[in-house]
Amino acid sequence: MNEQLIKEMKxxxxxxxxxxxxxxxxxxxxxxxxxxxxxxxxxVIKPSGVPYGQMKAxxxxxxxxxxxxxxxxxxxxxxxxxxxELYKAFKEINSVxxxxxxxxxxxxxxxxxxxAYGTTHADTFYGVVPCTRQLTSKEVESAYELETGKVIIxxxxxxxxxxxxxxxxLVYGHGPFTWGKTPQKAVENSIxxxxxxxxxxxxxxxxxxxxxxxxxxxxxxxxxxxxVNAYYGQG
Amino acid sequence: MNEQLIKEMKxxxxxxxxxxxxxxxxxxxxxxxxxxxxxxxxxVIKPSGVPYGQMKAxxxxxxxxxxxxxxxxxxxxxxxxxxxELYKAFKEINSVxxxxxxxxxxxxxxxxxxxAYGTTHADTFYGVVPCTRQLTSKEVESAYELETGKVIIxxxxxxxxxxxxxxxxLVYGHGPFTWGKTPQKAVENSIxxxxxxxxxxxxxxxxxxxxxxxxxxxxxxxxxxxxVNAYYGQG
Amino acid sequence: MNEQLIKEMKxxxxxxxxxxxxxxxxxxxxxxxxxxxxxxxxxVIKPSGVPYGQMKAxxxxxxxxxxxxxxxxxxxxxxxxxxxELYKAFKEINSVxxxxxxxxxxxxxxxxxxxAYGTTHADTFYGVVPCTRQLTSKEVESAYELETGKVIIxxxxxxxxxxxxxxxxLVYGHGPFTWGKTPQKAVENSIxxxxxxxxxxxxxxxxxxxxxxxxxxxxxxxxxxxxVNAYYGQG
Amino acid sequence: MNEQLIKEMKxxxxxxxxxxxxxxxxxxxxxxxxxxxxxxxxxVIKPSGVPYGQMKAxxxxxxxxxxxxxxxxxxxxxxxxxxxELYKAFKEINSVxxxxxxxxxxxxxxxxxxxAYGTTHADTFYGVVPCTRQLTSKEVESAYELETGKVIIxxxxxxxxxxxxxxxxLVYGHGPFTWGKTPQKAVENSIxxxxxxxxxxxxxxxxxxxxxxxxxxxxxxxxxxxxVNAYYGQG
Lengths: 235, 235, 235, 235
What we know:
The structure is a homotetramer.
Chain A: H1 3-22, E1 32-37, E2 42-45, E3 61-63, E4 69-71, H2 80-89, E5 95-98, H3 102-110, H4 119-122, H5 137-158, E6 168-171, E7 175-180, H6 183-206, H7 215-225
Antiparallel strand pairs in A: 1-2, 1-5, 2-3, 3-4, 5-7, 6-7
Helix pairs in contact in A: 1-6, 2-5, 3-6
């Protein structure tokens, strides 16, 4: 194994995990971040149930794409199988984040995708952030974390959503997963997702008949920041 | 008395009490934590109405299971009798926490138990967190704090709820009590209770027809973290 | 003038003013605290519109009960006349606090008194925290701050409320005033008022048919903390 | 160019930009502040998409009123054209602030102006904070940021609102812009706008039939703080 690569991945994954409670997205030991190195297939993920205050970069667990632990004394996050399934299906993503952030969970519990009610949404998510269907008892009882990954992929496939254009999802009755090119970007997407979830909640209270923004405004804001014609930022 | 035991209990109870305002669950002098040592029957509890900023570990009050003060110059929390009643009925718990945390109080004031709308709930509470019936005038006027304990126990008995599986309750018109094997665990349960209370509030706003999660998902998440087949954490 | 008395009053009033943004009750320069010395009739109040970060204890303004500035280079809070009117009518109070704290303002703007939905309310406020009627155009245009004081007193007189038992009020379309024996106590009452305002908001959302707690529970909690039979705290 | 002038403008604009996340109004790189010097026509604005933690005063971008970059290695905020359009139409303002602050966005997404429900509103905004109409696809696709400025001006012109009396606006489906004589004042107006947006949300929940405050109370509070007869503050 490439020691230097793993060291750097551990540090990035560790920093991204710490960024979650700092952003107010995670309480206690909830939430986890992983990163994959696409060349070697090496995955680094947070250990299961270790308090943030005691966690060190070196505690991050190293696995392969099949979930075999390659290094580290600790057990990986119990959500590992979900992460791996997403890496297998969504070839362009290099990091996955799972949280129980309050507002995203509220929509997941309500079983509703988050409509694009404004440009804050459109800047990051190109359309509705979808909510999966409910898992069946068979799925939950057989291979729960794997099936969680599968139902996310099914949602994006069925609804023909590009996971790079909508880098996040709500799992019915559970909570959000987001992803991105890097752990930092995946965490940012979790921050935005929780923010737009809260904005959408109250938007519907302030105006019971509100509709999503028109497609042309969604296009404008999304493509102002993404793709070949982006002109936001210093890039 | 075992000096060393009491010293350690005081430090744990003190730390757990301080954890409440740190977690945003307590304002002013509201809230209290106690611990019992089952072998000796010694109980340690926060003193009544002392500001958190001035409180020291040694201010914690030592009593027996009948509420007699064994050591300490200060009066115990006025809620002591409720704690003692819970220790007598719920033999497996070693710590009790009472707060007026905002969201849990809102449900207590609304007189409703908190339905299990998602996995954040199921990870800690195996089903509805119940709300007691309203105390009668006779109960309130005779031995209020004792009767508060009794009505909690009545609720768990009548509804056939295992207090280890649902380590918390809402007292009608008042607020939450939680418990656990240790003061730290009991405090964590208060943190989770307030979080799921807030999530449930907005879940019902976002989807007026939402139902609790199915039993098989409740089972999965609860038993992923508890019992002989648990696989969450490093245990 | 008693230099020592004034120095101590200034320090208490200054500390109480700073406690407001610390408790999250005040943004920018909103909010003010005053104290009266009943023997000398000396009143100390925050200066008008001075940023909290630049304010010093010595900037507090000294006036008499008629609002004449006795010492200090700065203008007193524009709400001075309201404070003075309350001191004249409510003989037992020694401090008044005015804030625009979010949740209390929401009820004031809604024109509703806050019902006693739980024991958190009852511990500090012995019944509904009333909301005044709307001031008339004549009252607003003639002597607005004085009339604000008068309408508060009118509310307590008409509704036969003891200002020591309900140490706070909402002024219609404006916001809360609280009071107490000391600046610290008056600030605490502002903290509690905002907290119970928020609790009451959501209580009504979680249960649309909720009623206030029964009188016997209100009695129990209020008199557990106040009056000759109080047994809460170390007093 | 006047080096000293630009240096001071950069420092003020930098400080004002940092004040936004400090006040909880901005996450990630959202939000921007600019200032204009009316004599020279020099504009200083935040660079586009630079993280707040890495930004230095010297990174602020210097442009003229037509948007030509006069100094600085970085690209200006993508919202520059909106700022410039406002400076051209609203001759008395010297600073513009744009944020995605949560509560103001909620009203913008709901497509509603914020009614003046209380004196907290009236102290800063002399009447409804208006919401623009939705931009057409043609406007969005041709010169989006410029048209955003134009629709704000159209709103104030059509509704005959004085931009100095109502120093802020909601852009439909997008979010708030505020302005003022100085960057500090424009930021303060953003703080107030988000606060009154939240207050108004819940005011409507607590009382479904609430009406705005009467004109005489709006007058009283606004003119207590603004204009020749103002008596609030030390001015």
